[in-house]
Amino acid sequence: MIETNALPRRAWLIVGLLWFVGCLNYLDRVMITTMRESLVAAIPMTDAQFGLLTTLFLLVYAVFSPFAGFIADRFNRSKVIIVSFIVWSAVTWLTAHAKTYEQLLATRALMGISEACYIPAALALIADYHRTTTRSFANGVHLSGVLAGSGLGGLGGWIAERHGWGHAFMLFGQLGIALAVVLIFFLRDLPADQNGSTLGGATTTASTTPPVRLGEALRSLLGNKNFLLALTYWSLMGASSWAVIGWMPTYLNEQFKLGQGVAGLSATGYYQAAALVGVLVGGIWADRWSRKQLLGPIYVVMVGIAVAAPSILLVSVTDTLVVALGGLVMFGLTKSFVDANMMPILTLIVDSRYRATGYGLLNLCACVVGGASIYAGGVLRDAEVNVVRVFQLGGLSFFVSLAILFFLRPGKRPPQPMAGKSH
Known about the structure:
Elements: H1 11-30, H2 36-42, H3 47-74, H4 77-95, H5 101-116, H6 118-129, H7 135-152, H8 154-163, H9 165-186, H10 214-222, H11 225-255, H12 260-290, H13 296-317, H14 321-349, H15 355-382, H16 388-406
């Protein structure tokens, strides 16, 4: 029987607040990539050093993600989010005052640590507040903020051209601190008497349990066959998605003789716009399916992958730009079904006490294999292998991911209460 309980108070307020936090999370991290000329003019560095600014951020972010997830499971999620937000906003502001490359590199490492604490805690908090009939849509709404932040990252370059590269970091750092004050008053964990598990579609009242411990969390997750399947599936999705998105501008530039600027805007603009719609559509559809079938999020993801894989293969074989862009749009739309439903799927297969830790592990693997796949694409390019092969390998990885989902079948397990948290 699928649960139909009314949502707790603040359920949608929490999503709304986190929409803005998620937007700033991604805007703060990506805008440095849009102001290369202004930044290099102020702090001389090689292209390799400039690339290292993002590489180091991703490396630190990935490595710290499982520990950040554990912190969100062990302690009050809302306080973890607020502290994380304050710290990364302060680091964003501090970045504007960097005078040397080493100082700039240090701020990127600090941002990697502080921002790693956000996503696992935020998605787990949304999962706490939202039941199976609204969880995917709530997750999708939040991710639309993340996508909006990625798209607005270009503001960094625009501001840098007019006011200097440090002005954008100062502005958005101060904006983050101001928003954090609002969170202090309104962002709260779900009250203990409303907290419960939804494993198997049942809901139970939370009881106080011993504090979550890292070793126990890792043993529970890594000893769970369904979680290991999800980890493999998510890693494959990360590898193929990062490779496709990372090399799409180059492909459009070379295959259709587009200028660098037009190719870049086409690759990111069409994809991001489609993904913004897709996280909402995928969330709504999964929630509607969940009203009749608990595995609704898994089925929606399977449909999305089944469409996304041939869409990207279509892009790789067509000689018509309109068809290629159409395939890219369809890829962005349906691939985002995966993003909207990963945490909802996770709630079906893991102990509810370890949701954030589980997502942190997923984040770690996706970032590592994603970065490796972009590098592998470069190796293939150096070996004079057509970039089309990257897309074909990506499509193949999607089909393998789809096959893995056929084996992802949460068994009926007794519902487990949420852990009591230290406040």
